[in-house]
């Protein structure tokens, strides 16, 4: 049994990690840290863990933690301060925040704070499991991808890599459930302010934009500048991305299908719906699946790709566990082979 | 007091008409027809009308109806059979369905049924109040615009008319509340099937597409082929359209602002938010407003327009009443100057 | 035109008052005060008022306010400090908070703070319009009833007054939408914490309990001790009360019906559904109606009364306007004869 | 591996059984029957099972089914026709409908149809695991309890058995999510008709009433007549029961606590919150837990018990699997030890 610690265990992502790791057969949760709920029993913070995880939350202090694997689920700007070469010498780290996902230049520009961990940043491996598996195996530090990003990258990389779409035409119109905004109190996520309404936010400036562009270049082999517009939807979980791009001349839906199959046919957690049914968030909730579907708009020669995942799972916690499984040489689906829960 | 009849008064749009006309100072509801609830008191079908509208629903038979104004809120394919030259000789008609909105060719293609009322179709005036006011004044037959269409047209016509955007790049990503799907039972709108989930539907084939394209040409002066993708959002009311288009070289946000102001500054029911705040459906619910906002994505030179309206109101019933007011020479906002209801 | 000021205009109740009074034909809004949003345009705080109420919010300072009528929509404990004999000499006051609703003894016990306005408290008239109309007419200070309380009192007073039920057996199981909790940020009303869940709260200790009991005695003529249990329901608006009480021997549903009719048949805003249909919150939303229905459980000889109102309207703002209308000698339904909005 | 068949696998309860049994280590799903979706791949009916359960649904014909265990998830009135002594000779049956839960007399009265399976009815064992474990072990036919009933019985049996409450005063005010109404189309569960509203239904006549009363007598040892009022809440899953009863003279919260502890302290799936925190549906969703809390109302000497479970899980499918585990001599929590999913 590997010893696992979580920094930031009482945010929504931390709590989802606790749920998954509690039932994981190869690990044992040894330290749950929390800035806000230090010294409180975990099951008091989250009563659904009553009789399951009644341990007391400890402070966010790495010196108190002795673990084989450390998950970090903290706001950006903190992980880059606490992850050091010394820590990595003894502990495998999976960071679920933004600090190790992009170059320090992009980080400075989009996050508007200076990056503190440039030294270890070089060592970080991007944890998009389906595309980076071999590097993840030997990694000491994983940057777990953002929720919008995972859905966008899985949809776009094959098409860019195989040159099916005009990369100057990509528009990602994304929709997210409210858990994506976290547990911090905010007028925008007060029940009566977001219930029964939909809005766009972060237009032209959302921080997942540079992450998507950098990784499309890294995995797809082409520099891309795109438009990304997220929306807040009155539901707890789920991300849907509706992606638009012009097809290269002569490309048909047959080829799109073929390319997706080439890359994902053997992937357990990417499900291809082709162009006969359309992805919806309800079919992936509570699971590690990313469902991908598409349609060719023959009147405009545009490709429309609709993909869905659970932002708390494949978009955060269960992909982090998938990364851990790869790092530890376990079966990749250990502890995360949940069937989606429906209706939920 | 004008006598008003409603064909199809027990669908959601019909019911919203009843609500608005019940409180309208210049009209009197004299006939409420219903195919499904014939002979039942209206307030039994819709208990919120108890003590207010207890009249019995009559059958859908025009020969039983004697009215100055007739609203038709029926599924497509019916209005075109019942509206005749004879009827128009005595009664002003406002049709809230699709039968008189587009050319019979487009109708045949997209609705996949033959159009029966080609003769009267020529006489139909498109009821987009802000753009067709002078023709509406003298009309006998109004084709009230579709919900997605109203939001899209009000957002796009000024920009196309003034040549600010590249019309080959227009993409409309639209999001609607579930009332848009009507009151008919359907597995897709069963509570537990659409609650807590978002989906795209009608990809590349939604029937509002030709209506948007035809009217952009009619009012904007340019032939347009575009991509339109509607989504179903777990909320009762509201439409949000997120529209993408490439700006013509050199066009700035200043010019976009100026053009919108030129056309809408004096319009009571179009509210311009500029590029400093973003439209949300919650701010227009229960009202006849269409809120328009935008943002220039400088990295890609794209314009992103975000607009919102209440699909039951400006997208259907209150715009129909606005049309009636214009036809009758009343103050245009009579009976429809509701402040949005929030939180609702 | 009467000049109207609102203290606390940016809470949900204040905002609903602004909406109603903006469209009220006999008043003019002259001062909107706000502690949190002082100096901000009202339509920036609540964008649904854009182009309608763009005035700047002023500070909560009575000396700056010159008005014929003053509405106070502030947290408890504040109104009792600002309402003085001097103020009442020149201004009619309608307080929507708790400070003038109950005796100072009950206030001290249940609210756990000392009551500061004992002197003016004596002068306060309880604003349950249907039961206290004649005193409201001449009042200078109105205590507008609580939301749960209005629904409970309208349901119970006739039965107690006529001796139909055993008053020692009354249990009120109430359910409220989340607007009832106000706009203040709180983990319990964070979207993802209350969406898709129902909970009871304030068991045996909710502050509306003494208000219900006192007023049942005042209007029903009998001292009552009862159990009141509120629940939070994942919806924006609406209160449903399910009330249980044992019938006195021999009382039938016929008599219950008769008693309700005796008291409410001529009341415009109380709608009696009898025992053939059951009240639901959706049928009263956005209106000043209170719908009352009941059923006799013959197996247990219990009466079950199910009543519904909109907590923001008859439960707060529109009842306050109804009180104002009575005080000013206007038609009682002026500015509040809205048909419920459905689906909303 | 035991072979398992499900009759009625495409209703919500059937589908939840498929989810649980798909991941259950000791069984293999061999037959999924469906009246409505015969010959369709299961994952086409429920796309969340894509790549997991792609088998074709077969017709509802027992002669085609060869299984060790048969789950029946069909509307009432069907199971009693298909379950025979011959079937029971070879197959263990767990019925999730109402046919074998109550006496044929009560069935005839409350369900208003004649009971067809009186012969096998005698053999049916009531599957309330925590209270009937020893009979379940040897059973051939299990009547799995109703959702409201499980929550009510687990809350009340200990108190009645130990004589803490006056059984003539019991009132159960219950609230359910919409999955409880099933997948069949109905105006009452059309999204826009039940979203954002709460209603009571089945007043004095809900069919779970006799089941609760019969089993309270069977397990609690006292004949009880009570009032049961269910409500429909706008959420997918979950049941909350708020139960009222007068305490016998002298009974304190200490004793209530003690009695609950006596019976449930060792029960894995009943969690006691005592009188310090209150059960909410969000803390049990997706799990087999029933959470029980209470409060003594000292002013009225009433006990208020608030309990919560997931109607699809402990209220249906996971309790059925729990019953199967007991029958097969497996660890009782096999395949059902899910941590609740939150926020969901």
From TrEMBL, chains A, B, C, D:
Places the protein is found: Cytoplasm
Keywords: Amino-acid biosynthesis, Arginine biosynthesis, Cytoplasm, NADP, Oxidoreductase
One of the GO biological process terms: L-arginine biosynthetic process
One Pfam family it belongs to: Semialdhyde_dh
GO molecular function terms attached to this record: N-acetyl-gamma-glutamyl-phosphate reductase activity; NAD binding; NADP+ binding
SMART domains in UniProt: Semialdhyde_dh (SM00859)
Active site: 147
Highest taxon listed in the record's lineage: Bacteria
Enzyme Commission number(s) from the entry: 1.2.1.38
Predominant cellular place of this UniProt entry's protein: cytoplasm
Domain Semialdehyde dehydrogenase NAD-binding span(s) in chain numbering: 3-139
Catalysed reactions, as listed in the record: N-acetyl-L-glutamate 5-semialdehyde + phosphate + NADP(+) = N-acetyl-L-glutamyl 5-phosphate + NADPH + H(+)
Enzyme category, top tier: oxidoreductase
UniProt-listed InterPro entries: AGPR (IPR050085), AGPR_AS (IPR023013), AGPR_dimerisation_dom (IPR058924), AGPR_type-1 (IPR000706), NAD(P)-bd_dom_sf (IPR036291), Semialdehyde_DH_NAD-bd (IPR000534)
Record's GO cellular component terms: cytoplasm
Pathway participation: Amino-acid biosynthesis; L-arginine biosynthesis; N(2)-acetyl-L-ornithine from L-glutamate: step 3/4
Job description of the protein: Catalyzes the NADPH-dependent reduction of N-acetyl-5-glutamyl phosphate to yield N-acetyl-L-glutamate 5-semialdehyde.
Family: Belongs to the NAGSA dehydrogenase family. Type 1 subfamily.
Name the UniProt record assigns to this protein: N-acetyl-gamma-glutamyl-phosphate reductase
Gene source species: Holtiella tumoricola
């Amino acid at each position: 049994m590997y010893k696992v610690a979580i920094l930031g265990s009482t945010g929504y992502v931390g709590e989802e990690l606790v749920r998954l790791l509690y039932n994981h057969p190869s690990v044992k949760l040894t330290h749950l840290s929390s800035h806000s709920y230090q010294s409180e029993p975990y099951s008091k913070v989250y009563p659904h863990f009553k009789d399951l995880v009644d341990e007391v939350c400890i402070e966010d202090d790495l010196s108190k933690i002795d673990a084989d694997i450390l998950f970090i689920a903290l706001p950006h700007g903190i992980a880059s301060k606490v992850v050091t070469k010394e820590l990595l010498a003894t502990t495998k780290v999976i960071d679920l925040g933004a600090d190790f996902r992009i170059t320090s230049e992009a980080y400075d520009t989009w996050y508007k704070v200076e990056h503190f961990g440039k030294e270890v940043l070089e060592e970080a491996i991007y944890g998009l499991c389906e595309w980076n598996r071999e590097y993840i195996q030997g990694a000491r530090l994983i940057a777990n991808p953002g929720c919008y990003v995972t859905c966008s990258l899985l949809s776009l990389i094959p098409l860019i890599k195989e040159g099916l779409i005009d990369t100057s035409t990509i528009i990602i119109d994304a929709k997210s459930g409210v858990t994506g905004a976290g547990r911090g109190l905010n007028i925008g996520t007060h029940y009566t302010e977001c219930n029964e309404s939909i809005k766009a936010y972060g237009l032209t400036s959302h921080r997942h934009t540079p992450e998507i562009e950098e990784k499309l270049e890294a995995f797809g082999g082409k520099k891309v500048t795109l438009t990304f517009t997220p929306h807040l939807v009155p539901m707890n979980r789920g991300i849907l991305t509706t992606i638009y791009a012009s097809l290269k001349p002569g490309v048909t839906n047959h080829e799109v299908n073929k390319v997706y199959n080439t890359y994902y046919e053997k992937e357990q957690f990417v499900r291809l719906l082709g162009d006969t049914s359309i992805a919806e968030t309800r079919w992936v909730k509570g699971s590690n699946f990313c469902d991908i579907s598409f349609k060719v708009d023959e009147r405009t020669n545009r490709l429309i790709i609709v993909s869905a995942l659970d932002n708390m799972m494949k978009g955060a916690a269960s992909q982090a566990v998938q990364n851990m499984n790869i790092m530890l040489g376990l079966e990749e689906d250990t502890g995360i082979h949940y069937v989606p829960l429906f209706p939920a």
